[in-house]
Amino acid sequence: MISHNIQAVSKASIFLTCTEGKYHSDQFIVQKNTLIRMLSGEMRIILPDRTLSVGAGDTIFFPRLELAKVMKLPKDGKPYSSAAVYFTPESVQHYFARHHLKPFPENQKPGISLFDPHPLLDSLFNSLLPYFELKNELPETIAENKVDEAISILKEINEDLFYSLGNFEEPGKINLTEFMERNYMFNMPMDKFGYLTGRSLTTFKRDFKKAFYTTPQKWLTQKRLELAHYQLAEKKRKAADIYLEVGFENLSHFSYAFKKRFGYPPSVLPDRKAI
Fold first, then answer.
1. pTM: predicted TM-score of the whole model, two decimal places
2. Contact at 8 Å (CB) between 91 and 145?
3. Residues 166, 133: Cα–Cα separation, whole Å
4. Do 70 and 24 share a domain, yes or no?
5. Which conformational region is residue 199 in: left (phi greater than 0), alpha (psi within -120 to 50 degrees), or beta?
6. Are residues 137 and 258 in the same domain?
7. Which residue range is the domain that position 235 belongs to?
8. How far apart are CA 126 and CA 150, in angstroms?
9. What's the CA angle centered on 170, arms 213 and 109, to 5 degrees?
10. CA atoms within 13 A on the CB side of 226
């Protein structure tokens, strides 16, 4: 069961998010560089090549245009809760201008980064939490100062990541085959796949058929079912635990598609049945 009881409190570019229930699953393209401090519960971040699990006290950075699937779960009897600072292009550009820094350095985009404990990060987020008790909106000047403080802290503890904040370029045209083989388990509209590969929807569909000799939806379903079969047969996992990870949005649709493809439901997977 996926809980949709989510509470999000916004104070300008500062957010507090809480969820209730068993877990909540999000799949998204991060639109802004974001710094998150876990307050309670667990965040499970599913990436193409690994899964990260972060808990209370951890601080993590999500770079802009990162594609990820996130599961928010309770832990130790406490619900998922986190505080986040968003770095808008305007806030970063103003910071770079005030400090006479090059606004668009050609730094390589970082991946999702988990920080080691640091007193500057502790100080930042401890100072943010009281703001969520305000009944009115946080004054703009205070919010700007806190975002500036967060940017300065990133410069102090990870200079490469700091300079990457200044890159606001849109995705360029990249190798479609490599991207799709890496990201097929992310269930998103075709125009988003096109955007992330630097293509219009029409061009994406045309280039996809040239590369794979079929339609994107047929290929995606096939790849996701093959991954599901591997997880069930080789890793001995349960359908209820993997259907979201492999790109399906509900268990019943996954079970139907799996049986249609392999001839038997995932709940009674034969030990020696091959794909």
1. 0.79
2. no
3. 32
4. yes
5. beta
6. no
7. 176-268
8. 12
9. 95
10. 9
